[in-house]
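Q: Given only this backbone (379 positions), what sequence would you predict?
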């Protein structure tokens, strides 16, 4: 049986909505580590790798890896390099007037190194890890050429051990270009793709309320228990908790949990519409949401708080930062990225406005209409 399946469904974009909202919660709490961030960090990044595997069309891409690499390179690497270079260019003049925790030269070193800076990594580290993790899986799938045992050997037996030994070998030094994280990402992609192979793109629920609730309870319990055993995870710092193997467990169980909840949420039109608004443009919101954090700080300073006050109240004020990140991310994409070819190129790697992207998917005789599902074509 070949790994293929029908088009992606609405529940996948709802899951991406869950994912990006959880990411914003974690980023709002950082650098503080607490029970909330420890639990959520145990599965949220793997969720995106998992979904990349579900939507990966093996038959379509197996014989066209070069084309696949080019299209995904545009989507993920163009925003990565543009945003990183922009930060570098801003730091140079800023360092003249303000004492910064890192110089432009130091940041440039980490840019070439492909990881870091230590404890100050830019959030866009995720983009090349997703790209190379997906590409690594695609290469493995090409080598296996439909042989399930070969694919199992590569991503269940070989890849976890390779990632573990690389992680051990470099500790406590950051690994260049997050190579161990890329290996772990390819494993999550494989697991997601295996679900596609077995089920297509059908939801992971049983359409039985009792069984679905039981699945949610069991998956929640496993993810919560193992996440507390493993501790806080930060892939940007090559920190997988106590063990990368425990991280693989929470990443898989947590991803399945969110996917089950996402399909259950399709029964609520209001909740699903809200999640779709974020999930259908999750990459662009991910790239832009941190702009809400300095705006929040500026607002509180205008209200009379000092910088020292903000530092002392950091954990208490995380809900305000979270709300700001949600608003800035969503409305910047809606009124900026979706309407500007320049911003679309920066944040999507493609210079198309939202109207142009919709029109290009329709026959010439049809008029653009609002699309209810994901705005990206099937992977």
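A: Predicted residues:
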């Amino acid at each position: 049986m070949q790994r293929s399946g029908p088009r992606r469904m609405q529940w996948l974009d709802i899951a991406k909505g869950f994912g990006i909202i959880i990411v914003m919660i974690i980023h709002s709490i950082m650098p503080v580590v607490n029970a909330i961030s420890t639990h959520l960090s145990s599965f949220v990044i793997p969720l995106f790798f998992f979904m990349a595997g579900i939507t990966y069309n093996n038959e379509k891409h197996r014989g066209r890896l070069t084309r696949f690499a080019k299209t995904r390179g545009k989507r993920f690497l163009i925003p990565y390099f543009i945003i990183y270079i922009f930060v570098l260019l801003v730091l140079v003049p800023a360092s003249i007037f303000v004492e910064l925790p890192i110089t432009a030269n130091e940041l440039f070193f980490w840019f070439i190194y492909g990881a870091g800076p230590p404890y100050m990594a830019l959030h866009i580290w995720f983009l090349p890890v997703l790209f190379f993790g997906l590409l690594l899986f695609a290469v493995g799938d090409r080598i296996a050429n439909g042989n399930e045992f070969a694919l199992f050997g590569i991503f269940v037996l070989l890849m976890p051990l390779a990632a573990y030994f690389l992680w051990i070998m470099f500790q406590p030094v950051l690994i260049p270009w997050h190579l161990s994280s890329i290996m772990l990402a390819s494993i999550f992609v494989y697991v997601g793709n295996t679900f596609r192979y077995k089920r297509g793109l059908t939801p992971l629920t049983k359409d039985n309320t009792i069984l679905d609730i039981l699945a949610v309870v069991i998956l929640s319990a496993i993810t919560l228990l193992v996440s507390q055993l493993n501790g806080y995870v930060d892939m940007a710092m090559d920190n997988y908790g106590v063990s990368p193997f425990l991280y693989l467990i929470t990443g898989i169980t947590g991803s399945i949990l969110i996917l089950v909840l996402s399909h259950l949420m399709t029964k609520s039109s209001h909740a699903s519409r809200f999640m779709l608004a974020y999930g259908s443009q999750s990459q662009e919101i991910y790239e832009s949401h941190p702009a809400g954090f300095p705006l929040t700080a500026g607002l509180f300073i205008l209200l009379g708080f000092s910088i020292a006050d903000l530092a002392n109240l950091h954990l208490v004020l995380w809900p305000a930062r979270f709300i700001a990140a949600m608003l800035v991310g969503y409305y910047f994409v809606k009124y900026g990225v979706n309407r500007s070819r320049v911003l679309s190129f920066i944040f999507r790697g493609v210079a198309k406005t939202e109207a142009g992207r919709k029109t290009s998917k329709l026959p010439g005789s049809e008029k653009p209409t609002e699309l209810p599902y994901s705005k990206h074509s099937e992977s």
